[in-house]
Amino acid sequence: MPEKTGIDLGSKRVSDSQAINEVIAARAALAKANTALAAVTKDRDELLVEYGDLQTARYSAGHKSPEANSAASFVRIIVNDVHGSMMDKPAVEAFIHDLREWSPNEIVLNGDIIECGGFLAAHHTLGYVAQTEYSWQEDIAAGNWFLDQIQEAAPNAVIHFIEGNHEDRVERWIVDQTMRHNRDSEFLRTMLSPKTLLRLDERGVNYYERGKHHIEGLPPGWIKLGKIFFVHELGGGKNAASKAVGTTAGNVVFAHTHQEDSSTLILPGVGLVKAWNPGCLCQKQPLWRHSNPTNWSHGYAVQFIEENGEFLHINIPIWEGRSLVGSLHRQIRA
Asked: What is the phi-psi region of residue 137: left when phi exceeds 0, alpha when psi lies from -120 to 50, beta otherwise?
């Protein structure tokens, strides 16, 4: 009697050809879903460009504030390199206090809001037992606390979260663990990514991954709001801002170096352009720096954008837990 061929699925037996057809159908459905996802991503990116173009016209249809003659129409706050469990709490509290005073329209979180150390820092040498004392759960809790404080202090602000190299560690770890298997990687990312654990969708926060293009023609991880580019990592070392403005040939705010910095460049075909780094809100002398002074500085930035797109950018330093903004915000609002 000839042997029957087929595949057992529990109590159901299907032929080889039927199983192959089901696999082909499943792959076709997956391809269709990926196409739909790509279309949604493209629509999101186009809306981001439109948002950058239209945000300066926010008050043009009769919504101009009574103070418009003496104050900017649009206030944007930029902060970066908080590093979760490694945040400097007095510096963060000074920033949150200022945030309430500014009552901004928009906030840009320019990367490394959480630390992602421990096992996620697989490619970094920890070297000290003290650096193993906090857990991944505590790091995420610190990040959620920071976001809670921001949204409480500025409940009406649109928030943009640009992924930094520390948040990016999660994706790199996932790819290592899944041996680069795409579907397993996506499955783990839906459970463990900063976007999920910080509840960014629930919070209404726009999240821009470091490894994806968000605006056509720009490198991965870059966005543009109005006349200004934003990216977490754009070189480092001495004269980082000078290198950044030369690379960009445009106005750019970058982070990553943890040091307040700025540079100006005048280009014949472009005009006046600048680069800024606001500093950081993390501990200024981490253990991995050993006995070497860091020269890091605490701070954030504020931008005042006029209806025609022109803007003023100011780096606000924080020293020993005290913001040096003084009465500037009260003078501007007066």
From this structure: alpha
DSSP E strand boundaries for the chain: 7-9, 12-14, 74-79, 106-109, 158-162, 206-208, 223-225, 228-230, 251-253, 261-267, 271-277, 298-305, 311-319, 322-323
**Packing angle between helix 182-192 and helix 168-177, nearest 10 degrees?**
140
Two tokens, residue 182: 């795409």
Structure tokens at 251: 């106005």
Inform me whether the pLDDT recorded for 70 exceeds 50: no
Instruction: Order the strands of the 271-277 sheet from edge to edge.
Output: 223-225, 228-230, 251-253, 271-277, 261-267
Are 301 and 253 a contacting pair, CB within 8 Å? yes
Q: What is the rounded CA–CA span in Å between residue 198 and residue 138?
A: 12
**Residue where the block lists tokens 């020269």:** 295
Q: What is the pLDDT of residues 23-46, one digit of tens each?
A: 777 787 777 777 776 766 666 666
d(CA 55, CA 50): 8
Distance, CA of 312 to CA of 319 (rounded, Å): 22
Q: What is the pLDDT of residues 161-181, one digit of tens each?
A: 999 999 999 988 888 888 767
Count CB atoms within 10 A of the CB of residue 306.
13
Identify the residue whose tokens are 């605490």: 298
